[in-house]
């Protein structure tokens, strides 16, 4: 009985003909389709795609090992052979050979004629993309949280990630932990800032307030593009010293105000004609987001704008990055969720904004953008 299709699956067939999915699931049909000239290419592609899903965890672990053993940085200094890499990483030669062959198959390294390994362009991008290696390094926490995926989706686990980002609970933060998290955020912020500022113009803006602006990495990038714009950073008190340091280092002290506070319990500073929320909403539950958006609406003048930039769900069309990665990540964090642009738009309209634009960004796996407008009086 266990093998018979569920009633709703049977119902997908029409009349006497079985549904296409019922056919595809039959081994005899699979064998025929794998040989038939008009179907065999598609069958092979689908088979490969399924195998990639099955092997995805191994691929991620190869990536993690490559990063943890500092192989990209070592190969940036010049090609190395397996023996040399084995010696500097303390991985036995035979096992290093397996790792390097796997990394070759995944396009991270390539073996030259002289048997030395060099980075490919993809491998070099690992070094060049700010924050990517730090992100990969801290993935071991996420992977442990997902080790029993059924228990995870049933909500029966206590994910470690929820403790990795304790600030979202609004509690006191250990300064050392705040620094680890801030470093990771600031590094990866550079890509987010690039894509956000390419998608949304700040021409004509007088003062921008970045709420949950962390250590000021986004505002520092804004300052590079707009040299007269005044800047305000609003974030929890533990993050403030590093932001002060960054603004001083970048010669921005005179142009920036730093306001320490919590958007949960404090009122927001007035005076900005544009407010940004960069990777903030997905950390929080709908009620917190709704209250924050209302506070922002009240803090903005007539005609003011709110820019929201963060990885989003694909909504009606789920995406690999938004729905098969960030949604799981935020679920493990336990306090927020990955929302679609349409869901964020609806929350903004409920908060009082007159209109909301969904702005196309260059790489949705880095960030997506929504811009909300307060009515002119
Ligand atoms: C995911 S980080 C994003 C930081 C930065 N915007 C970025 O994209 O790199 C979320 C930020 O929101 C801040 N935050 C969280 N809860 C907050 C609260 N209640 N009030 C103010 N800031 C808060 C955190 O301290 C943190 O800097």
Molecular structure report:
The termini are far apart. The protein has 377 residues and is α/β, with parallel strands linked by helices. It has a seven-stranded mixed beta sheet, with helices on both faces. The protein has a two-stranded antiparallel ribbon with strand order 1-2. The radius of gyration is 25 Å and the shape is globular. It has two domains: 41-128, Arc Repressor Mutant, subunit A, CATH 1.10.10; 144-373, Rossmann fold, CATH 3.40.50.150. It has 18 helices and nine strands. S-adenosylmethionine binds next to helix 13 and helix 14. InterPro entries: COMT-like, COMT_C, COMT_dimerisation, SAM-dependent_MTases_sf, WH-like_DNA-bd_sf, WH_DNA-bd_sf. It comes from Sulfitobacter noctilucicola.
Bound molecules: S-adenosylmethionine
Query: How does the major sheet shape up?
Result: 7 strands, mixed
CATH class of the largest domain: Alpha Beta
- Count of individual helical segments: 18
Low-confidence stretches: 1-13
In CATH terms, the superfamily of the largest domain is Vaccinia Virus protein VP39
Features:
377 residues, alpha/beta, Arc Repressor Mutant, subunit A, Rossmann fold, 2 domains, two-stranded antiparallel ribbon, 9 strands, 50% helix, disordered N terminus, binds S-adenosylmethionine
Write the layout of secondary structure elements.
Blueprint: H1 7-10, H2 20-24, H3 27-35, H4 40-68, H5 71-76, H6 82-89, H7 93-105, E1 109-111, E2 117-119, H8 121-128, H9 132-137, H10 139-145, H11 149-154, H12 161-164, H13 175-199, E3 207-211, H14 217-225, E4 230-235, H15 240-249, E5 256-260, E6 274-278, H16 286-299, E7 305-310, H17 320-333, H18 341-351, E8 355-359, E9 368-373
Parallel strand pairs: 3-4, 3-6, 4-5, 6-7
Antiparallel strand pairs: 1-2, 7-9, 8-9
The structure holds S-adenosylmethionine.
């Amino acid at each position: 009985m266990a093998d018979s299709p569920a009633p709703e699956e049977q119902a997908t067939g029409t009349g006497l003909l079985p549904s296409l999915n019922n056919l595809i699931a039959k081994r005899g049909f699979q064998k025929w389709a794998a040989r038939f000239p008009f179907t065999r290419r598609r069958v092979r592609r689908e088979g490969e795609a399924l195998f990639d899903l099955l092997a995805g965890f191994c691929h991620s672990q190869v990536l993690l090992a490559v990063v943890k053993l500092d192989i990209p940085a070592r190969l940036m200094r010049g090609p190395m052979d397996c023996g040399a890499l084995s010696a500097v990483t303390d991985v036995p030669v035979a096992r290093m050979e397996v790792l390097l062959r796997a990394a070759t198959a995944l396009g991270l390294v390539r073996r030259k004629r002289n048997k030395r390994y060099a980075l490919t362009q993809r491998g070099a991008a690992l070094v060049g993309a700010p924050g990517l290696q730090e992100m990969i390094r801290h993935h071991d926490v996420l992977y442990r949280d997902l080790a029993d995926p059924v228990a995870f989706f049933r909500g029966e686990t206590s994910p470690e990630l929820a403790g990795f980002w304790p600030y979202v609970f609004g509690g006191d933060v250990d300064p050392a932990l705040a620094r680890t998290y801030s470093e990771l955020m600031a590094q990866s912020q550079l890509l987010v800032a690039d894509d956000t500022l390419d998608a949304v113009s700040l021409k004509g803006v007088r003062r921008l307030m970045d709420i949950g602006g962390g250590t000021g990495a986004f505002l520092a990038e804004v300052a590079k593009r707009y040299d007269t714009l005044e800047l305000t950073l609003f974030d929890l008190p533990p993050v403030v010293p590093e932001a002060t340091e960054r603004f001083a280092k970048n010669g921005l002290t005179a142009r920036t105000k730093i306001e320490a506070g919590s958007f949960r319990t404090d009122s927001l500073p007035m005076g900005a004609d544009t407010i940004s929320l960069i990777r903030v909403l997905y950390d929080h539950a709908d009620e917190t987001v709704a209250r924050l958006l209302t506070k922002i609406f009240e803090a903005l003048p007539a005609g003011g704008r709110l820019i929201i930039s963060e990885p989003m769900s694909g909504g009606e069309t789920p995406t690999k990055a938004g729905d098969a990665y960030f949604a799981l990540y935020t679920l493990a964090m336990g306090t927020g969720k990955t929302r679609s642009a349409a869901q964020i738009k609806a929350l903004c309209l409920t908060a009082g904004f007159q209109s909301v634009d969904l702005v196309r960004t260059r790489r949705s796996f880095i960030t997506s953008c929504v811009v909300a407008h307060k009515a002119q009086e």
